[in-house]
Amino acid sequence: MNGNKYMQLALDLAQKGKGRVYTNPLVGCVIVKDNKIVGRGWHQCFGGNHAEVNAIIDAGKNAEGADLYVTLEPCNSYGKRTPCTLTIIKAGIKRVYYAVPDSNVSGGREILERNNIKVHEGLLKKQSRILIKDYLKHLKNKPKVSIKAAMTLDGKIATYEYDSKWITSEKSRNFVHKMRARYDAVLVGMNTALKDNPILTTHSKNLKNPIRVVIDSGLKLPKSHHLFDACVPTVIVYDLNITNIPKYLNREGIILSPVNIDAAKKDFSVIIKKLDSLSIKRILIEGGSEIIASALFSDVVDDIYFFIAPKITGGRTAISVVGGTGVKKMSESLCIKNMKVKKIGPDLLITGQIR
Fold this sequence. Notes:
Layout: H1 3-14, E1 28-33, E2 36-42, H2 51-59, E3 67-72, H3 84-91, E4 95-100, H4 108-114, E5 118-121, H5 125-131, H6 133-140, E6 144-151, E7 156-158, H7 170-180, E8 185-189, H8 190-196, E9 211-215, E10 234-239, E11 254-259, H9 261-266, H10 269-277, E12 282-285, H11 289-296, E13 303-308, E14 319-320, E15 337-344, E16 347-353
């Protein structure tokens, strides 16, 4: 069997991840030794092992001295997982054949060659580019950030005892479920996750679920929460100074993403840039009030979706939709452009652009 046939097998394997790996690319891998296939693997789900790692696990000791065929250049950076280049080097792979270079990868080929691994590029390149055309297009996109909030007529998202179920009607909630399918990720803060225990899915078998993102700086969220139910991958953004990682977070479907939380509190773009590095481009922020305020006043938000219910709760300590310090002068307020109003059942949906 020649190299093209091995790469075609890798392409066929890559298809098995369809519908489960987005925003990552579809990737397949085959390991060959003495003209026999000793390992097969593909990227099975977002946040899971890459194709090369799964193939090396499948090959076991047979990986040493073998050839590796993979549809996309092996990664060389610490993101959701250890770099594939490091795994390939440790396994003792002799030669690497990849079809397409990855513009999101820096130095993958170089580090392999520095470790005396022969690298070849271009087998079935055209077919492999077709396989990952959505991924390549996605990489060129700039992040788009939206804010969705449900509130009472007097601007409250929860009572003074933090009761928030339900503010808006079932029609509005169903509208939001469909909205989520248009985004790569839905983001909430730790307080919202802790008190509301949200699922953050589309609640539909026919719609794509977004990745869930929670900002949990101290990794305090308990393992019993819905965000850890493994039905959808969850990215946990936490303080890079945390070294004691709870064991229940080291499993499939959980992606740990450390950031400088002090810097992020001053500038929410730190969070957006981190998610962008994970190929998460379209982000829907759903709370809470401090997260919404931080995002708005860090100039990272493109548009808003404010659902307003015909209810008044009052209460000086009830939670307002936008927290933070606020502005000193009315002239410093954020101005909403192209504002539109739509009636959804008994509620109003106000949309508008910020930049």
